[in-house]
């Protein structure tokens, strides 16, 4: 796919919960290799937009195409198989599985190992290496055998990103990565997300409230207000927009 | 020795049947309560077809096929209903199936039941039957162990926690749920068949709520998605009521006391030690 071609295209997306419109006529083009930030006040529909792309909420109307293919009728797991990965607002890891098992969940699908790989020493050794490398990259090697549920908020996010790194796809939808994360770990999180984009080639759509964190990461931002796309542009353009500052931030960002 | 072999056979039957319940309830958190229906259906299909002169192997295949077809009804219900409604539906199926059996005397033989059920030649004696059942139990437990060790087991455990993460990993949770229901039904059918070979008698009292209480108690007491927990839980639940025999009470009272004992065990599990049954935290 050409770098200038859209990896994912949203046309006039409308999502309704009951009688309430959550998203209204949202259109968005994301090119391959981009990092897009989705920002807006609470309840403006950011997570709903990610859920619509993932296939977790049905559209009232609109079109979504991924890599030139209409994905409207595909269930969420088939969208994942096509290459749309997802992190969740409330930590997308399995807390009752070990840290290593969380990595295995990502790796065994991506590597297409046979179902019996667990009983074959050759595959086990390969998997051990994958786990060790994935955990070393996010600084969680010491927790390999721990239950994922005992990790701190930041470590859980790092584990989630380590699992996503192994995801065999093109697009990652990352929902509020800094939620519940201590400031000390945010820099590491930002580094891991940048690596996902630069080294592993993922196109990323990221929802985040911490604008300082976000503006250092993204190429382009989209601001949603009341379920509608209010403005779209580079971080500098977004920060300069007076009307946006009044509506969303209440005052100047600086 | 006869008593010991009978207990070994009872243990095996309960373990085979509870493996399905364990997979559904303790591993995946799908409250599939229709397991006694599958067990009873398999037993009746086997016995009726054998009585019609159909050879054993065909009777066995027909029995398993009838269970597979019925399990597809439960799969459909699972796909169409909410989790709570599915649980109620499966419970209602136990009551409905029980009512059908109790009112269909021409097929079930009414209170007289169907007697003289013939065992296959290789398990004619109780000791052979008990060892055969125990071997089958080991195979079924091994099957669950393999399931839990593969991606399927991890996905089932993950589904219990958050089905959205499983879906976003490219795994259909609907297919997983359907697989669990079909596997549980198959194990229940096996248990029904080997039970009827042991007791060599079948009446409408076979299965029903009493059986449901027993297997669900085993699944809940096992709690952890581990084979050894299931094996120990089955041992406790099957053998504990045996102490009631020492009290020299009338058989009708013993049945009620056994259910009371199960209720007590469940209350103790839920009230006092449920936190210990949750996944243990490991610190480095």
Description of the molecule:
- The complex is a heterodimer of chains A (254) and B (284).
- Chain A has helices at 46-54, 76-82, 99-110, 121-137, 153-165, 183-198, 211-215, 235-240, 242-249, and strands at 6-17, 20-31, 35-39, 61-66, 69-70, 84-86, 171-175, 203-207, 220-225, 228-233.
- Chain A is an alpha/beta fold and 254 residues long.
- Chain A has a domain at 6-89 and 166-249: P-loop containing nucleotide triphosphate hydrolases (Rossmann fold), CATH 3.40.50.300.
- Chain A has a six-stranded mixed β-sheet.
- In chain A, helix 6 (183-198) links the parallel strand 7 (171-175) and strand 8 (203-207).
- In chain A, helix 3 (99-110) runs parallel beside helix 5.
- The N and C termini of chain A lie far apart (39 Å).
- Chain B has 284 residues and is mainly alpha-helical.
- Chain B has one domain (2-208).
- Chain B has 13 helices and two strands, in the order αααααβααααβαααα.
- Chain B has helices spanning 2-27, 35-51, 56-80, 83-103, 105-108, 126-149, 151-161, 163-168, 173-199, 208-222, 227-239, 251-271, 274-277, and strands spanning 114-115, 201-202.
- In chain B, strands 1-2 form a two-stranded antiparallel sheet.
- In chain B, helix 2 packs across helix 9 (173-199).
- The longest helix of chain B has 27 residues, at 173-199.
- Classes of the chains: A alpha/beta (254), B mainly alpha (284).
């Amino acid at each position: 796919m050409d770098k200038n071609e859209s990896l994912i295209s949203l046309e006039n997306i409308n999502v309704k919960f009951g009688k309430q419109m959550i998203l209204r006529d949202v259109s968005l083009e994301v090119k391959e290799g981009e990092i897009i930030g989705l920002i807006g006040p609470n309840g403006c529909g950011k997570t709903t937009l990610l859920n619509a792309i993932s296939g977790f909420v049905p559209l009232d109307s609109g079109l979504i195409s991924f890599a030139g293919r209409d994905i409207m009728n595909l269930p969420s797991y088939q969208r994942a198989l096509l290459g749309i990965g997802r992190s969740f607002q409330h930590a997308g890891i399995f807390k009752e599985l070990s840290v290593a098992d969380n990595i295995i969940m990502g790796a065994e699908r991506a590597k297409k190992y046979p179902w019996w790989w667990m009983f074959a020493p050759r595959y086990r050794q390969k998997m051990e290496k994958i786990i060790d490398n994935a955990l070393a990259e996010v600084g969680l090697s010491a927790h390999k055998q721990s239950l994922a549920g005992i990790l701190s908020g930041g470590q859980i996010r790092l584990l989630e990103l380590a699992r996503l790194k192994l995801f065999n796809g093109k697009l990652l939808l990352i929902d509020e990565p800094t939620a519940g994360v201590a400031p000390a770990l945010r820099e590491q999180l930002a580094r891991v997300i940048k690596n996902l984009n630069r080294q592993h080639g993922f196109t990323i759509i990221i929802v985040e409230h911490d604008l300082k964190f976000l503006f250092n990461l993204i190429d382009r931002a989209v601001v949603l207000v009341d379920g509608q796309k209010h403005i779209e542009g580079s971080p500098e353009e977004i920060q300069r927009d007076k009307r946006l500052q009044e509506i969303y931030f209440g005052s100047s960002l600086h | 020795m006869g008593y010991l072999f009978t207990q070994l056979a009872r243990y095996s039957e309960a373990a085979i049947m509870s493996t399905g319940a364990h997979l559904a309830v303790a591993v995946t958190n799908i409250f599939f309560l229709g397991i006694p229906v599958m067990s009873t259906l398999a037993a009746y299909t086997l016995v009726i077809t054998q009585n019609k002169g159909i050879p054993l192997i065909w009777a066995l295949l027909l029995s398993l096929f009838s269970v597979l077809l019925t399990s597809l009804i439960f799969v459909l219900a699972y796909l169409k209903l909410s989790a709570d409604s599915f649980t109620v539906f499966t419970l209602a199926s136990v009551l409905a199936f029980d009512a059908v059996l109790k009112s269909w005397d021409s097929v079930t033989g009414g209170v007289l039941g169907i007697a003289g059920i013939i065992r296959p030649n290789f398990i004619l004696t109780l000791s052979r039957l008990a060892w055969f059942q125990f071997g089958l139990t080991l195979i079924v437990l091994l099957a669950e162990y393999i399931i839990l060790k593969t991606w399927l087991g991890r996905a089932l455990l993950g589904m219990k926690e958050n089905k959205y993460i499983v879906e976003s990993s490219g795994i259909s949770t609907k297919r997983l749920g359907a697989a669990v229901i079909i596997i549980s039904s198959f194990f229940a059918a096996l248990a029904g068949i080997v039970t009827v070979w042991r007791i060599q008698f079948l009446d409408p009292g076979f299965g029903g709520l009493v059986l449901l209480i027993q297997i669900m108690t085993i699944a809940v007491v096992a709690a952890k998605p581990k084979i050894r927990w299931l094996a120990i839980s089955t041992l406790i639940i099957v053998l504990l009521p045996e102490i009631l025999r020492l009290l020299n009470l009338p058989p009708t009272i013993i049945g009620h006391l056994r259910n009371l004992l199960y209720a007590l065990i469940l209350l103790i599990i839920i009230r006092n030690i449920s936190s210990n049954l949750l996944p243990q935290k490991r610190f480095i």
